[in-house]
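Hi all, posting the design record for the shared folder.

TITLE: backbone redesign
STEP: 1 of 1
STRUCTURE INPUT:
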C-alpha cells in the first residue's frame, strides 16, 4: 500500500527517518512499556531531540516551521509502532497549539521552547466528570483575585496527568455556557494543584491518565491564554487539530494490524497451504487495505486544507470519525485472521483491538462527530 500518499519529497524524507526510528527503537519497546504501565519519557524526549515535538510551529520559539500534513504523517508512523506514544505527541500538541495560537508573547517565550524541544510535556484539561461531550457545561471555576485567578474544581480523564510539566486548563470565569469559559497555562507545582489516582484503563496503559484537583490554586494573571471568555473557541480550535491527530493515530494502528495479519497469513498453513491463499481471507485483507487507504487520504486531505488556510473543521470530524471506525473494524478482523493466536497476549493483535476502542471516544465521540457533520448538512441544505 502507498503509505506516502500526498507527501512531497521533503516530507517523505522526514517520514522515512521517523519510520526507521520507529522500527529500530519505538516498536520493540512498546509492549514492555504497556505491560509495566510506564510512561515512555525517554522516547518522548528523543522525539523532541528529533524536532518532532514542535513540527508545525514557528521557528523563533524552536518549532520546525513545517506543515500540519507533515506533523500528522509523523504521528501515523509513530502509531504503527506504539499507539500510546503517538497519542502522547497528539495531546502534547493540543497544549502547545493553544499557547502558540492564542498566548501572549511572554507566555510563548516562557513555555514554547521547552514544549517544542521535548524538555516539557504538555497536557490538555477540558473534560470533567459531568461534562464530557457537553464540554460547555464545565464546572471548574477561576475566580479573579489580586494578581491572578484562583482555580477551584476538578478535571477527569486527563492524559499525561501527573507527568506533564504544563497543563492547558479550561475553567469558568463568567456566565454559564461557552462564553463564560477561559483558558489558563498552569504548572503542576503551584499550591492547591493535586492529582487523583492513576486510572485503570482497557488499553493505552503507557499513557497515564489522572484526575486534576484544584483547591484554591492561584495562577498569575499573565498565565491567562487569550482573553477572558475566549477559552471555548480556543478549546474547539485545538480539538479540530487534535481530531486529525487521532485520525492519524487510527490509521497507524490499522496499518500495524494489517501488516501483522499479512505476515501471519503468509506464515500460517492449514490444509497444506498458507492461509493467505484462501479467497475468504484475501477478501478480508482487501477490505482492510482499502479502508486504511481511504482513511489515510481523508485525513491527509483535511490536513492539506488546514495548511492552505481553509475551514477544515468538518473535514477533521469526518476524518476522525471514519479513521477510528476503520481502526476498530481492522483490528477486530485482525484478531479473527489470527484465530486463537489473536486472542493471546503472545501476539500484539489483542492489544491493538483494545487500543482501537478508545480512538472512537477521545477528542469527541464518534456520535458527536456525526452530530457535527449532520448539523452542517442540515444547515447547508
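Okay, here is what came back for every position:
SEQUENCE:
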Amino acid at each position: 500500500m502507498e503509505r506516502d500518499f500526498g507527501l512531497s519529497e521533503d516530507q517523505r524524507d522526514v517520514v522515512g527517518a521517523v519510520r526507521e526510528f520507529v522500527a529500530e527503537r519505538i516498536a520493540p519497546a512498546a509492549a514492555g512499556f504497556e505491560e509495566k504501565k510506564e510512561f515512555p519519557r525517554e522516547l518522548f524526549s528523543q522525539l523532541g531531540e528529533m524536532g518532532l515535538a514542535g513540527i508545525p510551529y514557528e521557528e523563533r520559539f524552536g518549532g520546525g516551521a513545517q506543515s500540519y500534513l507533515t506533523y500528522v504523517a509523523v504521528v501515523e508512523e509513530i502509531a504503527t509502532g506504539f499507539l500510546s506514544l503517538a497519542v502522547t505527541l497528539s495531546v502534547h500538541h493540543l497544549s502547545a497549539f493553544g499557547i502558540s495560537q492564542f498566548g501572549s508573547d511572554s507566555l510563548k517565550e516562557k513555555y514554547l521552547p521547552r514544549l517544542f524541544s521535548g524538555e516539557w510535556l504538555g497536557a490538555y484539561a477540558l473534560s470533567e466528570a459531568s461534562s464530557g461531550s457537553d464540554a460547555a457545561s464545565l464546572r471548574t471555576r477561576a475566580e479573579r483575585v489580586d494578581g491572578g485567578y484562583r482555580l477551584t474544581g476538578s478535571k477527569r480523564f486527563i492524559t499525561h496527568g501527573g507527568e506533564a510539566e504544563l497543563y492547558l486548563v479550561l475553567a469558568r470565569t463568567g456566565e454559564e455556557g461557552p462564553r463564560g469559559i477561559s483558558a489558563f497555562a498552569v504548572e503542576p507545582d503551584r499550591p492547591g494543584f493535586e492529582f487523583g489516582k492513576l486510572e485503570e484503563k482497557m488499553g493505552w496503559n503507557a499513557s497515564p491518565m489522572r484526575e486534576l484537583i484544584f483547591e484554591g490554586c492561584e495562577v498569575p494573571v499573565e498565565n491567562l491564554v487569550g482573553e477572558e471568555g475566549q477559552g471555548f473557541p480556543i478549546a474547539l480550535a485545538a480539538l479540530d487539530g487534535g481530531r486529525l491527530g487521532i485520525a492519524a493515530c487510527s490509521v497507524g494502528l490499522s496499518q500495524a494490524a494489517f501488516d501483522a495479519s499479512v505476515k501471519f497469513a503468509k506464515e500460517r498453513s492449514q490444509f497444506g497451504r498458507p492461509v493467505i491463499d484462501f479467497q475468504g481471507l484475501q477478501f478480508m485483507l482487501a477490505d482492510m487495505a482499502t479502508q486504511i487507504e481511504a482513511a489515510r487520504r481523508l485525513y491527509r486531505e483535511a490536513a492539506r486544507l488546514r495548511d492552505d488556510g481553509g475551514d477544515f473543521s468538518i473535514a477533521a470530524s469526518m476524518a476522525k470519525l471514519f479513521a477510528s471506525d476503520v481502526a476498530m473494524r481492522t483490528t477486530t478482523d485482525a484478531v479473527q485472521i489470527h484465530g486463537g493466536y489473536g486472542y493471546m497476549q503472545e501476539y500484539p493483535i489483542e492489544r491493538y483491538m483494545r487500543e482501537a476502542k478508545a480512538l472512537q471516544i477521545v477528542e469527541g465521540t464518534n456520535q458527536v462527530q456525526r452530530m457535527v457533520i449532520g448539523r452542517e448538512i442540515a444547515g447547508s441544505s
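COMMENT: The chain has three domains: 9-121, 123-228, 233-380.
Let me know if anyone wants the other runs.
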